[in-house]
Design brief:
Layout: H1 2-7, H2 15-26, H3 31-50, H4 60-72, H5 92-111, E1 124-125, E2 134-135, H6 151-161, H7 166-177, H8 182-186, E3 193-194, E4 199-202, E5 213-216, H9 219-235, H10 257-271, H11 280-289, H12 296-303, H13 308-312, H14 319-348
Antiparallel strand pairs: 1-2, 3-4, 4-5
Helix pairs in contact: 2-3, 3-4, 3-5, 4-5, 6-10, 7-9, 7-11
C-alpha cells in the first residue's frame, strides 16, 4: 500500500480510498489488479479535487464529466497509439476498465453506510421493464471483434521473426501454439513443461481466470524449445523462470512483461504490421480453431475462458473466408437456377 501511495500521492489524501484498496489487497487480488484499481481511482479523485467535491458527495454528473475527460484527453503514449477510433483519449474498453475502479469504490462506500446509492451504476436485467428488460449502464459497452493479421501480414512478420534469437522465436511459437496471454507466457517456469508429451502447464496464479490448464504445443515448437534450453543453460542452470533476460542490467533474471512487449512491438514495426501485439498470437490461434472443427466449449477450455461468451469474440471468419463461402454458395444457387431453367425449357417445348 505504501508503494501505491508513493506512485499516486492523491490516494493518501483520501482515507476511504486507501481503506478500499487495502481490502482488495487483503483478499489476495493480483498486484496488477490492485495497481489498475489504484490508477483508475486516482484519476477520478483528481477530478473530484479539481471540482472541489468530496468523493462521498459526488454525483452522477461528476462521474459523467470524468468519462468525458478520459475519452477526449490526448493519450500519453502519443505516436505509439496503434489503433484508436477517436484518435485521442482512451478506447471504450479502457474507459470501461477505469469505470470499474470507480464503481467498486462506490459499492464499498454504500456497504460502509457512507452513501445511499452508487452514482456509476451498472447495466443489469430487470424483469418487467419496458424495452426488453435491460437497464443501460452509465456508458454503452462496445463489443468488437478481435483484429487478426492477413496471411500476407502474418508471413511478413514471420520473415522478420526468423532472424530473431531463438528465445524470441520460441516465445512467439509458444504464444501461438498454446494461445498464451503475455503474462502466462512470461511467467512460464522450467518445470511447467513436459517435453516428452509436448505439454505446457499454465499455472492458475498466472491466468486471468485463476484456473490452471494444460495445453499442447507442436513438434516444431518442441525443436525450438530444445535449442533454447541449450542457450538458457549458458545463461543459468538454475531452475525457475523459463525465459531469462540476457541484458547486462537484468542478466539471468526472468524476462519482464514490458521487455517482451517491446520486442514484439519492434518486430511488428519492422514488418510493417503495427497493429500486431503480444495478444495477437492468441487471437489468431483461437480464431483458427473453429474452422478446424473445434466446438466452442473445447476452445473455451483450451483458452482458459470461464464463459463461452468470451470465446465467441474470438470465433469469427475473415472477410476472405466469407467471400469464399459466398462464392461457393452462389455457384451452387446459380447452377440450381440454370438447371431449373433448362428443365422448364425442355418441359414446354422451348421458349415462347
Amino acid at each position: 500500500m505504501v508503494e501505491l501511495r508513493e506512485k499516486w500521492p492523491i490516494l493518501g489524501r483520501h482515507e476511504q480510498a486507501t481503506a478500499w484498496l487495502q481490502v482488495w489487497q487483503d483478499l489476495g487480488r493480483a498486484p496488477r489488479t490492485i495497481d489498475a484499481y489504484a490508477r483508475g481511482l486516482a484519476e477520478y479523485l483528481e477530478l473530484c479535487e479539481r471540482e472541489s467535491v468530496e468523493p462521498v458527495r459526488a454525483t452522477r454528473a461528476h462521474v459523467a464529466l470524468h468519462v468525458r475527460e478520459l475519452g477526449s484527453r490526448p493519450s500519453r503514449r502519443g505516436a505509439n497509439v496503434v489503433a484508436l477510433d477517436s484518435g485521442a483519449g482512451l478506447s471504450n474498453a479502457t474507459l470501461q476498465q477505469r469505470l470499474v475502479s470507480v464503481r467498486l469504490f462506490y459499492d464499498f462506500l454504500v456497504e460502509e453506510g457512507l452513501r445511499q446509492d452508487n452514482p456509476v451504476g451498472r447495466g443489469r436485467y430487470t424483469p418487467g421493464t419496458r424495452g426488453g428488460g435491460q437497464q443501460r449502464g452509465l456508458m454503452r459497452r462496445l463489443v468488437k471483434l478481435p483484429w487478426i493479421p492477413s496471411d500476407e501480414q502474418w508471413r511478413a512478420l514471420l520473415a522478420i521473426a526468423a532472424a530473431e534469437p531463438v528465445r524470441t522465436r520460441l516465445m512467439l511459437a509458444l504464444a501461438y501454439d498454446a494461445a498464451l496471454r503475455r503474462e502466462e507466457l512470461c511467467s512460464l517456469r522450467t518445470d511447467d513443461l513436459d517435453p516428452g508429451r509436448r505439454l505446457v502447464r499454465v499455472r492458475a496464479e498466472t491466468t486471468k481466470s485463476r484456473r490452471e490448464r494444460v495445453v499442447p504445443y507442436s513438434a516444431t515448437t518442441g525443436v525450438l524449445l530444445s535449442q533454447y534450453l541449450v542457450r538458457r543453460a549458458s545463461v543459468s542452470r538454475a531452475r525457475g523462470g523459463l525465459f531469462l533476460s540476457e541484458s547486462r542490467r537484468n542478466f539471468a533474471q526472468p524476462l519482464s512483461l514490458w521487455t517482451w512487449s517491446k520486442v514484439v512491438r519492434r518486430i511488428a514495426v519492422e514488418a510493417g504490421v503495427e497493429r500486431f501485439s503480444t495478444h495477437t498470437t492468441r487471437h489468431l490461434c483461437l480464431t483458427e480453431l473453429a474452422p478446424m472443427g473445434w466446438e466452442v466449449h473445447a476452445i473455451a477450455t483450451f483458452a482458459g475462458h470461464q464463459h463461452t461468451d468470451s470465446t465467441m469474440r474470438y470465433i469469427h471468419l475473415s472477410g476472405r473466408d466469407l467471400a469464399e463461402k459466398l462464392e461457393r454458395g452462389m455457384e451452387h444457387i446459380h447452377a440450381q437456377r440454370v438447371a431449373l431453367l433448362s428443365t422448364g425449357i425442355e418441359g414446354t417445348g422451348g421458349p415462347r
